[in-house]
């Protein structure tokens, strides 16, 4: 049974930082690409960042480029999202997701990903 469990969400002031973590189990973790998505109230789930299995490729949404960093540790089966310079528009539930591979045309599409965590709330106050 595949499980992805996020942690690290919380309330932070604008300009602050948070680090999200996702622990995976029940899958051959090093074979999967990992990603973070987020969903704000009343909005569709949107792509935030992705990383390939070997950490040699990372991808970011334009809205977070330069502020967020995705990384993974295959030995620990974890993926992290370091979020700096947060603003109120970053407020959302953040989800980690796993996919067997990434292609340019679909890596930002949530339907590409087979497994999902339950999400962790990030709230940025002004």
Features:
126 residues; mainly beta; four-stranded antiparallel β-sheet; 11 strands; seven-stranded mixed β-sheet
List the helices and strands and how they pair.
Elements: E1 3-7, E2 10-13, E3 18-25, E4 33-39, E5 46-51, E6 58-60, E7 68-73, E8 78-83, E9 92-99, E10 115-116, E11 120-125
Parallel strand pairs: 2-11
Antiparallel strand pairs: 1-3, 3-8, 4-5, 4-9, 5-6, 7-8, 9-10, 9-11
Concise overview:
With 126 residues, the chain is mostly beta strands. It has no helices and eleven strands.
Identify the quaternary structure here.
single chain
Overall mean pLDDT = 96
* H/I helix tally: 0
Largest pleated sheet: 7 strands, mixed
Structural class: mainly beta
Number of strands: 11
Poorly predicted sequence stretches spanning 5 or more consecutive residues: none
Describe the protein in words.
This protein has no helices and eleven strands. Strand 7 (68-73) and strand 8 form a beta hairpin. The radius of gyration is 13 Å and the shape is globular. Helix content is 0%, strand content 48%. The model has no long low-confidence stretch (mean pLDDT 96). The chain is mostly beta strands and 126 residues long. The strands form two sheets. Strands 2, 4, 5, 6, 9, 10 and 11 form a seven-stranded mixed sheet that branches. It has a four-stranded antiparallel sheet with strand order 1-3-8-7, with no helix packed on it.
């Amino acid at each position: 049974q595949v499980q992805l469990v996020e942690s690290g969400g919380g309330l932070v002031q604008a300009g602050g930082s948070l680090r999200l973590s996702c622990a995976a189990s029940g899958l051959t973790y090093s074979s999967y690409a990992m990603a973070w998505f987020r969903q704000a109230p009343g909005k569709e789930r949107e792509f935030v960042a992705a990383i390939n299995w070997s950490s040699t490729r990372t991808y970011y949404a334009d809205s977070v480029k330069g502020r967020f960093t995705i990384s993974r540790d295959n030995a620990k089966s974890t993926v992290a999202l370091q979020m700096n310079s947060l603003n109120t528009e970053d407020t959302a539930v953040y989800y980690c997701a796993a996919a067997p591979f990434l292609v340019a045309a679909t890596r930002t599409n949530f339907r590409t990903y087979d497994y999902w965590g339950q999400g962790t709330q990030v709230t940025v106050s002004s």
